[in-house]
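To make the argument concrete, we let one protein speak, a sequence paired with a row of structure tokens, as a model reads it:
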Amino acid sequence: MLDSPGSALSNQQRNAVAGALKAADHLAHLLSQASYLAQLRRGDTPLDLVRVDVARVVEAAVQAVRAAPDLNVSCDVGEILGTHVVTNHDRMRDAFAFLIAAVAKAQMTPKVLVVTGHRTKLEQRDGVRLRIEVPGVASQATEGVFDTTRGGLGLDLPIAENVIASHGGRISELTASGRCVGMIVWLPVAP
């Protein structure tokens, strides 16, 4: 009611109401994420797994990131060889989009991100290793533990970590000069 066009509020009051409404929307989004994360951790949500080309999932995630107006990074899909995974397409798309956005938001200046992938083994299992990276910079980076505590991303990173783990995958992080310049996701390939 306070935000309606006919209300008699000063500019300062209108700004305060707009700020309160924005904060309430943000809190509602965080609560929704917390509920979803709890469901993922408890295993309450069925996965509905299907065999999909991982390149198509990545392309869908890149399209979702490109549609986000608040990112200062563009993203391209490089070579991802014909590799199939058994996954829930929508959940995996969202997890990749969260990871791409996290790398994008970690950049101080506009950059181009590239997602590439190739087959590899991990602990005697065939899989696909996908790299989300800033080309050139990531080649000098070190691979380390995935940091889910990065600020300003809500619960996107813990959600992505749980989705990837529920599919038997792993995430690691590429850092250079103390800054995240990429992510590596390993997923088992479909038999």
Notes: The chain has two domains: 6-45, 47-188.
